[in-house]
């Protein structure tokens, strides 16, 4: 740990606070650095955090005054916009003002892995038998299959998988359908998911719960409607 004497200030770095020095972050998420700087001299100083990769400066934090005899937490809040993969970063504490400062106080390494996971969500509400988000569907006696259409978007960078599923109450075969998983490319504004339910053996009244699920069966969206056989 290095001490510098500048205008009466003697600055030294405490332990950097990241929680861990190997971490994974989603592309577009923030990363926060907090690094205390102690001034054991008799004059005031200034210090800031710089983040470097392969010798190239990525981000400079704001300068913080560090009064004589005080410890000041230096912070840097930055949104991740780096390429995907492992990013070997070096966090540096510098005395003075960015971008160059007056000298390096201390440095430490941070292994950052940047990922871009899918972020799936329904687009609007479902269309059921050509009707947008109906609360009720009245069926004639011929009881033709009922198509259900609901789009899924992906605002993440990686491809995701989603499907539709229906559950009826009372439970009737043909109304309980699980669709196949459909790929939702990263950055997609909407991919249509389609299933059809068969009301041939339904009771006179059925409540249908429609869900949109990802590949891990995590719930993305839900919509309920009632079928009436007339």
In words, what does this structure look like?
This protein has 230 residues and is mainly beta. The protein has 2 domains: 4-115, Immunoglobulin-like; 120-229, Immunoglobulin-like, CATH 2.60.40.2550. The chain contains no helices and 19 strands. The protein has strands at 4-6, 9-13, 22-26, 30-39, 45-53, 56-60, 64-66, 71-79, 85-95, 103-115, 120-128, 131-132, 136-139, 146-154, 160-169, 182-184, 191-197, 205-214, 219-229. The strands form 4 sheets. Strands 3, 5, 6, 7, 9 and 10 form a 6-stranded mixed sheet that branches. A 5-stranded mixed sheet has the order 13-19-18-15-16, with no helix packed on it. A 4-stranded antiparallel sheet has the order 1-2-4-8, with no helix packed on it. The termini are far apart.
- Percent of sequence in beta strands: over 45%
Tell me the radius of gyration. 29 Å
CATH class of the largest domain: Mainly Beta
Which stretches are low in confidence, meaning pLDDT under 50 for 5 or more residues running?
1-7
Q: For the report, how would you describe the main beta sheet?
A: 6 strands, mixed
Count, helices: 0
Please give the domain count.
Answer: 2
Helix content: under 10%
Query: Helices and strands, in N-to-C order?
Result: EEEEEEEEEEEEEEEEEEE
CATH fold topology of the largest domain: Immunoglobulin-like
- Indicate the overall shape: rod-shaped
How many β-strands, per DSSP? 19
Question: What is the mean pLDDT?
Answer: 91
Structural class: mainly beta
First-to-last CA distance: 82 Å
The CATH architecture of the largest domain comes to Sandwich
């Amino acid at each position: 740990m290095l001490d510098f004497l500048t205008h009466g200030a003697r600055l030294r770095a405490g332990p950097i606070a990241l929680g861990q020095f190997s971490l994974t972050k989603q592309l577009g998420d923030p990363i926060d650095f907090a690094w205390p700087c102690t001034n054991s001299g008799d004059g005031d100083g200034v210090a800031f955090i710089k983040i470097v990769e392969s010798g190239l400066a990525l981000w400079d934090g704001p300068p913080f005054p560090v009064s004589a005899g005080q410890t000041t937490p230096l912070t840097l809040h930055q949104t991740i916009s780096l390429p995907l993969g492992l990013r070997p970063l070096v966090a540096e504490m510098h005395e003075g003002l960015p971008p160059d400062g007056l000298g390096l106080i201390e440095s430490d390494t941070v292994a950052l892995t940047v990922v871009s996971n899918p972020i799936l969500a329904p687009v609007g509400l479902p269309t059921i038998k050509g009707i947008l988000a109906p609360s009720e569907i009245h069926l004639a006696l011929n009881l033709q299959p009922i198509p259900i259409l609901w789009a899924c978007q992906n605002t993440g960078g990686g491809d995701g998988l989603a499907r539709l599923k229906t559950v009826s109450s009372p439970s009737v075969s043909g109304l309980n359908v699980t669709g196949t998983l459909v790929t939702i490319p990263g950055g997609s504004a909407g991919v249509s998911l389609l299933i059809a339910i068969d009301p041939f053996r339904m009771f006179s009244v059925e409540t249908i719960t429609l869900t949109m699920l990802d590949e891990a069966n995590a719930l993305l969206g839900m919509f309920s409607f009632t079928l009436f056989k007339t």
